[in-house]
């Protein structure tokens, strides 16, 4: 087991333009736009492609090649989605993407990573039959036990180059969660588009929850 303070955190430099706001809050971003911040966890078994997807989405590092290098604890990247449609409004979104190691050695670190989470991307490799089963346990720990709703989750079935196989069928725990096939070599544009749509869905949920809380206070 590894102590929580041993989590490895690698951050990108924050954009110089403007302060960030807490998830669910909004601030002026010019020309009627809004600014948001969101924390998304990327969770899955070892060797499923979490870091490759994280690097691609954030443009923070190498995508493909170089052999397998397991994540130690947790790796954090920060990037911006400049023009995202959220509830029919254009928003600038600051994304914290937490690439969580699937190695059980770091399980003691997981609770620290879950604090303030707004959404979870579950990843598995269909070329390894046991990974879908492992995802059940991870769903229980990162979503069910944390009160994370289905609308705050998505599953990326990540196809690595040259790997065949459909993998085991996901359990009923994922029946209401979108399942998206990701193939960076063949259609990287749709992967980014699907992720952006997921972020917009998460922000819509966060906004709705915040509005309900405000209304309950006023009643």
Rg (CA only): 17 Å
State the total count of DSSP E strands.
7
- Domain module tally: 1
What's the CATH topology label? Rossmann fold
Separate helix tally? 4
Give the low-pLDDT segments: 4-32
The averaged pLDDT comes out at 81
Distance between the termini: 47 Å
What is the helix content?
25-40%
Described by the principal axes of the CA atoms, the overall outline is globular
CATH-level-2 architecture: 3-Layer(aba) Sandwich
Approximately how much beta-strand content do the residues carry?
15-25%
Structural class: alpha/beta
Which CATH C-level class is it?
A: Alpha Beta
Largest sheet: 7 strands, mixed
User: How do the helices and strands follow one another from N- to C-terminus?
Assistant: EEHEEHEHEEH
Query: Can you say what the CATH homologous superfamily is?
Result: P-loop containing nucleotide triphosphate hydrolases
GO molecular function: GTP binding
Protein name: Intraflagellar transport protein 22
Keywords: GTP-binding, Nucleotide-binding
Organism: Chionoecetes opilio (Atlantic snow crab)
Quick gist of this model?
Keywords: GTP-binding, Nucleotide-binding. With 219 residues, this protein is of the alpha/beta class.
Provide an overview of this structure:
- This protein has helices at 50-58, 110-114, 131-142, 184-218; strands at 27-28, 34-43, 74-86, 89-100, 119-124, 153-158, 179-182.
- It has one domain (4-218): Rossmann fold, CATH 3.40.50.300.
- A hairpin with a 2-residue loop joins strand 3 (74-86) and strand 4.
- With 219 residues, the protein is an alpha/beta fold.
- The radius of gyration is 17 Å and the shape is globular.
């Amino acid at each position: 087991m590894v102590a929580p303070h041993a989590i490895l955190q690698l951050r990108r430099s924050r954009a110089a333009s403007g302060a960030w706001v807490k998830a669910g809050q909004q601030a002026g971003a010019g020309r009627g736009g809004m600014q948001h911040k969101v924390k998304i966890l990327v969770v899955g078994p070892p060797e499923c492609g979490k870091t490759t997807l994280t690097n691609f989405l954030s443009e923070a590092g190498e995508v493909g090649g170089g052999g397998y290098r397991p994540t130690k604890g947790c790796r954090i990247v920060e990037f911006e989605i400049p023009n995202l449609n959220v509830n029919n409004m254009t928003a600038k979104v600051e994304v914290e993407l937490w690439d969580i190691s699937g190695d059980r050695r770091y399980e003691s670190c997981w609770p620290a990573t879950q604090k303030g989470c707004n959404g979870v991307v579950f990843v598995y490799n269909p070329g390894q039959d046991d990974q879908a089963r492992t995802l059940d346990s991870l769903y229980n720990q990162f979503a069910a036990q944390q009160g994370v709703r289905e609308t705050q989750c998505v599953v990326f079935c990540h196809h690595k180059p040259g790997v065949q196989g459909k993998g085991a069928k996901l359990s009923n725990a994922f029946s209401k969660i979108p399942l998206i096939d990701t193939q960076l070599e063949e259609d990287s544009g749709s992967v980014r588009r699907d992720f952006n749509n997921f972020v917009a869905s998460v922000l819509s949920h966060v906004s709705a929850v915040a509005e309900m809380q405000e209304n309950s206070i006023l009643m």
